[in-house]
Amino acid sequence: MNRPSERIRVLIADDNRAVRRGLRLQLEGAPGILVAGEVSNGVDAVHVARAERADVVLMDIQMPQMSGLAATRVLARPDDGHPPIAVIVMTSYAVDGYVSEALDSGAVGYLLKSHDSDQLVGAIYAAARGEALVSSRVTAPLLREFVRRGGVPADPEGSALLTSAERRVISVLAGGVTSNEGIAETLQVSVHTVRSQLHSALKKLDLADRTQLALWGARNRI
């Protein structure tokens, strides 16, 4: 698990005090992570994330005053001089109507609250690097739903631009393995190779992140 050299400022946004405390306990011992604060509603999530210059926000969906999805839409986009902030949406449900809406709102990650500490920390590291990460228990059903709805266009010409190695990486990603480490282990290659192939494929296909790449792979049957 690669971690950044500087500490990542993380804000915890959840209306359940016990959940906030549990997340804080998981993060306080993690290398390179600083818990910058806790809030219990979406309005405070926006204000405190900006005031504390958070790098990543762990965002619950259902909160008072402003929902987590509404707060995500505000934080994920630059506004009035405020830079975008990476948001990881967290929920108790593996498959529900919020998954696609969270990603459409600009969230870079979607995790279940039943995660383990390594998954949580890995998702934060990934978000800080500008990568998208969705829980593997969510990814495959999400991809099937996006494909069923036609949410990603078919692009038969795009496949011709890819090397066989890039197509293999996309295939594993579209199958629900979302981390560089997991893809590398599946294909028996280095994490550096996976990162390089993902970057190349994103550039060739003019896609923004690995979630879009996974959706593209599923839609085009890679």
TrEMBL record:
Domain HTH luxR-type intervals: 155-221
Single biological process term from Gene Ontology: regulation of DNA-templated transcription
InterPro entries the UniProt entry points to: CheY-like_superfamily, NreC/VraR/RcsB-like_REC, Sig_transdc_resp-reg_C-effctor, Sig_transdc_resp-reg_receiver, Tscrpt_reg_LuxR_C, WalR-like
4-aspartylphosphate, modified sites: D60
Taxonomic superkingdom: Bacteria
GO molecular function term, any single one: DNA binding
Keyword Nucleotide-binding found: no
Annotated CDD domains: REC_NarL-like (cd17535)
Residue ranges occupied by any Response regulatory domain in the UniProt entry: 9-128
Keywords, sorted A to Z: DNA-binding, Phosphoprotein, Transcription, Transcription regulation
Annotated PANTHER family: TRANSCRIPTIONAL REGULATORY PROTEIN NARL-RELATED (PTHR43214:SF24), TWO-COMPONENT RESPONSE REGULATOR (PTHR43214)
The protein's name in its UniProt record: DNA-binding response regulator
